[in-house]
């Protein structure tokens, strides 16, 4: 699990038997890794993470602030709640809309 060293993420102390957990299941993290804030946790085992980034607008020669909302799988061993700052990583498609998994909380 090389992403653990890059982002100073320690494996969760709690154990879970979730098949879609990157630590205790059979889901591998590959591709993009983002940091964002949980804005919704109303779905079961899924959170919506909002990520802010800057995009250059050549017409105005400035940067625009953009946001994206990314649905992510929330394993029971991590249990992120609304307002938590989390790190998410890309994985295989876990459902129709979920392609990311929560790797850990920041701070």
Helix content: under 10%
Total number of helical segments? 1
**Overall morphology:** globular
List the helices and strands in order: HEEEEE
Please report the distance between the alpha carbons of the first and last residues. Answer: 21 Å
Low-confidence stretches: none
Characterization of the model:
This protein has 107 residues and is mainly beta. The protein contains 1 helix and 5 strands. It has a 5-stranded mixed β-barrel with strand order 1-2-3-5-4. A hairpin with a 2-residue loop joins strand 1 and strand 2. The two termini are 21 Å apart. The mean pLDDT is 92.
Supply the key terms.
single chain, mainly beta, 5-stranded mixed beta barrel, 1 helix, 107 residues
Structure described in brief:
The chain has one helix spanning 2-6; strands at 33-43, 46-57, 62-73, 85-90, 100-105. With 107 residues, the chain is mostly beta strands.
Which helices and strands, and how do they pair?
Blueprint lengths: L1 H5 L26 E11 L2 E12 L4 E12 L11 E6 L9 E6 L2
Parallel strand pairs: 3-5
Antiparallel strand pairs: 1-2, 1-4, 2-3, 4-5
